[in-house]
Amino acid sequence: MNILIPHSWLKDYVQTELSPQEIGDLLSLHAFSVEKILPQEDGDVVYEVEITPNRGDALSVLGMARELKAILPAKGHPIGWTLKESKQRSPLTNKLLPLNVEITNPELVPRFSAVILDDVKIQDSPRYLRDRLEKVGIRPINNVVDITNYMMIDWGQPMHAFDYDKILGAKMVVRGSVEGEKITTLDDAERILPSGVIVIEDGEGRLVDLCGIMGAKNSEVDENTKRVLLFVQVYDPVKIRKASMALGHRTEAALRFEKGIDYLGVIPSLWKAVEMLEQTAEVSLVSELIDIQNANYIQKSVSIDYDKISSIAGVPISVREIQSILTGLGFEFEAESQSKSKESIDPVEKNKVVVPSWRNNDVEILEDLAEEVIRILGYYSLPNRLPSGEIPLKPSNPIFYWENVIKDFFKFRGFFECCTASITSKDLAGADALPLKNPLNEDFAYFRKSLVPQLLEVVRSNKNYSDELRIFEIARIYSLTEENRKEGQLPEQPFMLCLVTRGVDFLEFKGDIEALLLEMGIKSFHFEIKTHKEGQETIFSCEIPLKNLVAVATKNKVYTPLVKFNSIKEDVTIKVDEKAIYEDIIATIKKLDPRIFLVKFKDIFEDRLTLSLEFLDREKQITSEDVAPIREKILKKFN
Amino acid sequence: MEVSINSDLEKLKKQVENELKSLSTSKAADELWLKYFGKSGILKSIASQISSLSPEEKKDFGQKFNQIKSALEKKIQDCITELSQKEESPLEKFYKTLPGKKPKIGHLHITTQAIREIVEIFKPLGFTQVRYPEIDWDYYAFEALNMPSTHPARDEWETFFVDAPEHATLGKMVITPHTSSGQVREMLEGQLPIRMLNISRCGRRQSDLTHNPTFYQFEGLVIDKGINITHLKGVLDYFAKNFFGPDRTTRLRPYDFRFTEPSFEVDINCGLCKGAGCKFCKGGWLELGGAGMVHPNVLIAGKIDPQEYTGFAFGWGVERTYMMKSGTKIDDIRLLLSNDLRFLEQF
């Protein structure tokens, strides 16, 4: 998620002499990618920064400032740091206003805090505040609303202001929604809720807040508001995310709540907001602080292993440096509690690190600490080395070798290799194709059961390219069989070799495939060529499971000793009929005499098949006298 | 010219040979040929007189005559060939400048070419090429990679879900959105150390100028004792120099993935401006992809003890990385699925 941070706003917290370009570079190398530095009309610049999902704490100016506080001094750049503690306040009057709060399920709201403010003077926010909001892309509305938005960006704490008088009965019930409930949010959209969305119901049963996402129209602060309920929470991140996704309403507030809020930052944020409201809206505090804590916030401690951090980096990092970097980031060191033995602990080896509250959601294990240390150190400071351990003795899968042989073979036979999508339209995928639950569109909705339909499409769409077209592809087809279903297995996803030609002679196509088989050392393999008629065109296709080819392919070659005698070559013509199969004829001929060395196709005319024969005797030089009876035998067999 | 049949054939032969020696043009050689072998040539005239001989003489003469005829035929032909080779006509010369008759060579798809190049680069480092299922279980694609089902990190992957029954323990059936689904599968094979190069097809629910809904990724996984960040840097820099050019450099920036810790984004310096900054790059750098040290939870899912073994992984788009080679100039990734032969023939 990208956020916008004005440089002038950062200066409230961290002061440095570095230019925005230098700051941007340092942030990119040590923390977050600064995508753009946008100059503003008043000479200010705004950083556009990409914040990774684990760093909700950095979705604020303060969060970014904390990073700079750790990075700049570590890289030798002195800084000034200002962070004023916000003051607790007490109501000055005893004419207090009530709020009856009921939380049906404490898990929904780990922390619920609020104060009531009277004598609110609704007006435009001061110039600097409006400027800052505009620079980060938020439209200023009025001082009260603006301050809640300001605090979300300033300290990363989303908060909401209600018109107190619109909370009927001064009662708030925080609960999960029932399916079908309706609420109209501040953007005038009426939303129908699924169950389990966190909402607030007032004393008269009206829904007055879509918690963590957006306030409701019926409780909004407008120019007539006299009394304000300032409302600062921590919500269950999972519930907020689920609701926000289900409603398709991804607000800045929701995006922060779902990543986790700093539990210890809630009350200080509340008081800073009150202070700002006092300054800009002349409010008076007319309630005590309401602070309902439903979660037991426990400070997280992680055991640190200094040696392991160095070994992750691959370079030695001193204990002092590790401690210095982590301290700069807000981590604190403590010794492990005294062991039962009388040995005292080496003061340098403090081996438990306390995680600051704003990093509570992100830092768990030693590797997280290692990342903190090494990134501040700078990944660029590490050398490049190649692993020098043992090379695994894993034999490579022969399927890759043969795939390359097949692809090169067809390339040099003039074929173009295609790449079609695994998923296609219902039509092209074939009957009973496996569907997607969330297809992209109707042309991308079903897994194909054969490569042929898509390759035929390719031939169609390349009609004008040339009269002769040869294409092929080696890719998966998909099928969820009954057995797959029964056994809880993944679908069958075998690789197929598929060839398609147009304008190519049948025997030439067949010859290409037979030549491939020869090249793969395959003596005999059954394959089928299908014919497709498209108007005047005849298109051939052939689809073979790759696994079947690879199973019988071999690189092994066997030598047959050369014979020192000459062979006699002769043509012979025999009659064939419709039922004849060439392979069977050859087999039959060869069986007639062992001296029939080679039988090759020569010609076919009507029903007469001419074969070129080669006769060879390994024992002696064969003569025409020897050949004559063999020839007779053949002719007798077939004519 | 009338030559008597009684002429000494030997003398005739010598005469021809002498005339041959003095030839200097193929035209003259042609004329010589005509003189002896032409329709009204000398040899023809001699042959026509054979009938005047007695049967005895005929046989004798015939044999000799044929011998000499063959020998002279060959000699003159050789001479003609030799002379004509030395002096080609201008048309013959031009003929040789015509384009050769090239056999029709086909084309391998750019994705295949890219994959081959990648495999070749990793071979010397001892990586083994593998391939894992395109349709896989949610467990391997996400959960085993430290991403529980409710985690926002899952959003990043825009997953396609298959309309098929869920598995009791392995969850929903999905098109794997990344080759990282191969990591735990490889680890569960039980062999260590690991140097895996998984190149497989993935799917994500997006389609625009720089994204196809179906695409290839290549994933490297190295697991051994003592693997650290310097090894990750070393291998990626080695790849970048071999794939893009020896003058290119890489850098790591902090990032976040659930299945690695620390995580990085890897940049390469821009090939066009060499790091100065231009309109094609971001401040002199281009993003290659993500990488990181394998998260202990992932090692545990792969039944490997994270106290003993560490590893690194990276997973990048095949087409995307190839298109980053300066000079390829492919401006729309959807061309790679178009199967337009006019596109395919350019590669």
List its traits:
A: 639 residues; Phenylalanyl-tRNA Synthetase, Chain B, domain 1; Phenylalanyl-tRNA Synthetase, Chain B, domain 3; 5-stranded mixed β-sheet; 5-stranded antiparallel β-sheet; 19 helices; 31% helix; 23% strand; B: 347 residues; alpha+beta; BirA Bifunctional Protein, domain 2; 7-stranded mixed β-sheet; 3-stranded antiparallel β-sheet; 20% strand
Write a structural description.
- The complex is a heterodimer of chains A (639) and B (347).
- Chain A is of the alpha+beta class and 639 residues long.
- Chain A has five domains: 2-81, Phenylalanyl-tRNA Synthetase, Chain B, domain 1 (2-Layer Sandwich), CATH 3.30.56.10; 100-293, 3-Layer(bba) Sandwich (Phenylalanyl-tRNA Synthetase, Chain B, domain 3), CATH 3.50.40.10; 301-337 and 347-378, Phenylalanyl-tRNA Synthetase, Chain B, domain 1; 398-552, BirA Bifunctional Protein, domain 2, CATH 3.30.930; 568-638, 2-Layer Sandwich (Alpha-Beta Plaits).
- In chain A, 31% of the residues lie in helices and 23% in strands.
- Chain A contains 19 helices and 30 strands.
- A five-stranded mixed sheet of chain A has the order 6-9-12-13-14. In chain A, strands 7, 8, 15, 16 and 17 form a five-stranded antiparallel sheet that branches. A five-stranded mixed sheet of chain A has the order 21-24-25-27-26, with helices on both faces.
- In chain A, a hairpin with a 2-residue loop joins strand 26 (530-534) and strand 27.
- In chain A, helix 3 packs antiparallel against helix 10.
- The longest helix of chain A is centred in the middle third of the chain and has 16 residues, at 266-281.
- Chain A is elongated and about 135 Å long.
- Chain A starts with a strand and ends with a helix.
- By secondary structure, chain B is of the alpha+beta class.
- Chain B has two domains: 9-97; 110-344, BirA Bifunctional Protein, domain 2, CATH 3.30.930.10.
- Chain B contains twelve helices and ten strands.
- Chain B has helices at 9-21, 26-37, 42-48, 55-86, 90-97, 110-122, 138-141, 181-187, 229-244, 296-301, 318-323, 341-344, and strands at 128-130, 135-137, 160-161, 173-175, 194-203, 214-224, 250-257, 260-269, 285-294, 310-317.
- In chain B, helix 2 (26-37) runs antiparallel to helix 4.
- The radius of gyration of chain B is 39 Å and the shape is elongated.
- At the A-B interface, helix 2, helix 6, helix 9, helix 11 and helix 12 of A face helix 6, strand 1, strand 2, strand 3 and strand 5 of B.
